[in-house]
Specification:
about 350 residues; alpha+beta; Aminopeptidase; Elongation Factor Tu (Ef-tu), domain 3; nine-stranded mixed sheet; six-stranded antiparallel β-barrel; about 30% helix
Length: about 350
């Protein structure tokens, strides 16, 4: 289980898949699950593996996209202006490597840059530089070189560059895009482990979560699930500046079970089922109520006639940056809980999630 998790996380985190351009992660999903069930995609590009079976339609899904950028313009001197795809904090951007994926699939490396501080006034040096003041340097000397020699076009997707790296502490790993490649690895891994279930298990990868939970809206209508387990890579809160007594996302604390964020109030019965299942299976877990943030549950729970959702997460330090950190054990605990829920969600259990009369 551990080796498979590491293999999936390595391949997925190093893939180039920003919102609206999720091809590389979708290809990994298809390759891993081609013999597990029937594959399909909706009109936006979200991908699904229907494992078959009888009973309620249970969807276990992550989102395929990572925060990234898009080429907005090319200056006469050959520098790239860009727009963000998803939420970026400008502090995390300067001097970081990125890759532009061209129309023919080439990846052109560059660096996010600005006017050097040596040429700024003291007042300017202490200001946060906004994204519209930044540019990407791909080593070109003209717009013509960027377009004709490098093959870069306006509208090309841009992703961070960061290798999946083991750290000195055992089971700690650093990479980009743990939000949400931990969820995608978890969905794939759960499908490989679940076996026969008393439901129609469907695995999924949605598009464009980072730009407004967009893919889940179409996915809900396409799959019409009776229950959804959303797998995520939420921010940890165990670093300096947080009150450790109030920590709900500690590395090594186990899988997160999210009760609330600003996008969704978790179905209380489903959340309690997840907690009880974790307790019964001896799976380390931490219950979370968040004052901000959101997940695909925000779209799923409001779709169709209303769909009960639960959100499981792997806490990750420094998400939406080039270098996030997870504890692999938290990921393995998320896979274990998702697999246990997949086996437990039979007709009677799923119906009970929304029996209000």
């Amino acid at each position: 289980m551990r080796d498979k998790a590491l293999s999936l996380l390595t391949e997925l985190t190093e893939a180039h898949s920003v919102p609206g351009h999720e091809e590389e992660v979708r290809a990994i999903f298809v390759d891993e699950l081609s013999e597990t069930g029937e594959l399909s995609t909706d009109g936006n590009g979200s991908v699904f593996c229907d494992c078959g079976g009888e009973g309620p339609r249970v969807l276990i899904a992550g989102h395929m996209d990572e925060v990234g950028f898009m080429v907005q313009n090319i200056t006469p001197e050959g520098f790239l202006r860009f727009v963000p795809l998803g939420g970026w904090w400008e502090h995390n951007l300067l001097a970081q490597r990125v890759e532009v994926r061209t129309k023919n699939g080439d990846k052109i490396v560059g660096v996010v840059a600005s006017m050097p501080p040596h040429f700024l006034t003291p007042a300017q040096r202490v200001q946060v530089i906004t994204i519209d003041q930044l540019f990407i340097d791909v080593g070109a000397s003209s717009r013509d070189e960027v377009i004709n020699d490098f093959g870069i076009s306006i509208g090309d997707p841009v992703a961070p560059v960061s290798a999946f790296t083991s750290m000195a502490k055992e089971d700690y790993y650093m990479a980009k895009a743990f939000d949400n490649r931990v969820g995608m690895a978890g969905a794939i891994h759960t499908g490989l482990l679940a076996g026969d279930t008393d439901n129609r298990l469907i695995l999924g990868g949605t598009v464009q979560e980072e730009v407004g939970l967009r893919g889940a809206k179409c996915a809900a209508n396409f799959i019409k699930p009776d229950a959804v387990v959303v797998l995520e890579g939420p921010p940890a809160d165990d670093t300096p500046g947080f009150n450790r007594m109030e920590c709900q996302g500690q590395l090594g604390g186990g899988v997160q079970i999210r009760m609330f964020d600003t996008s969704a109030i978790g179905n209380p019965r489903f959340a309690q089922l997840a907690v009880e299942t974790a307790q019964r299976e001896g799976i380390p877990h931490q219950v979370t109520v968040r004052r901000s943030g959101g997940t695909d549950a925000g779209s799923f729970h409001n779709a169709n006639e209303g769909i009960p959702c639960v959100v499981l997460g792997v806490p990750a330090r420094y998400i939406h940056s080039h270098n996030a950190i997870i504890d692999l054990n938290d990921h393995l605990h998320m896979v274990a809980l998702a697999t246990a829920l997949a086996r437990r969600l039979d007709e009677r259990t799923v119906v009970g999630l929304t029996s209000y009369l």
